[in-house]
Amino acid sequence: MNKAAALEELKREIAADKSLPLIESNLVFGEGDPNAEVIFIGEAPGFYENQQGRPFVGRAGQLLDELLKEIDWKRSSVYITNIVKRRPPENRDPLPEEVTAYYPYLKKQIDIINPKLIVPLGRFSMNIFLPDAKISRDQGRVFRKGDWIIFPLYHPAAALRSTAVLEELRKKFGTLPTVRRKLADLLAEKPAELTAADKHLKQEKLF
Fold it and tell me: Which segments within 43-113 are labelled E, that is strand?
């Protein structure tokens, strides 16, 4: 089974799972290139995402599209999804039990795509990979997790609320092409940023 077909099967599996929380909202599975080297992972869909059934299509998504254009990447060349696949009421933060419920499906989604670079957007997404990380300290730094490179960034929604965060996000986002070019080197040896971060960040094998 190819990756696209495997993702469609996983989407049907999630839709059929009535034990999941937030089933009153529409399923927002994810979209992009099933063979993408880079996957962006947010926390949960919002109002417009729930309406359209697509991730990152509201104001935060428009900013993400803008940032992708600035580095000359097509949205269709990456994969974009969220941890939680349905919208929490009133766009509140996802609850720990909601993250826990949807996490196994996110894991399967990542396993199918098998990206070389995972870009968590915001602290909720970052902390499922790097439990002890802090977004203000660790965004824009490079971490190794098994066979993957983790590169957390601020969530675009946070950047819309703060000029300083927007400037920092734009700066770090601009380094993504360099990080991707160096993937082979980063996987072959311990990233320098990880060496500096080891003092405060436990590296736990999740996958």
Answer: 79-82
Say which DSSP state 132 is in: T
Q: Are 127 and 110 in contact (CB under 8 A)?
A: no
For 145-199, how does the pLDDT look when each residue is reduced to its tens digit (9 = 90+)?
A: 877 789 999 999 999 999 999 999 999 999 999 999 888 776 666 555 554 444 4
Please give the single-letter amino acid code of residue 9: E
Assign a CATH topology to domain 3-197: Uracil-DNA Glycosylase, subunit E (3.40.470)
Buried/exposed code over 122-147 (b: 16+ C-beta within 10 A; e: otherwise): bbbbbbbbbeebebeebbbbbbbbee
Tell me if residue 205 falls in helix, strand or coil.
coil
Domain ranges of the chain: 3-197
Instruction: Give the integer Cα–Cα distance in Å for 135 and 84.
Output: 19
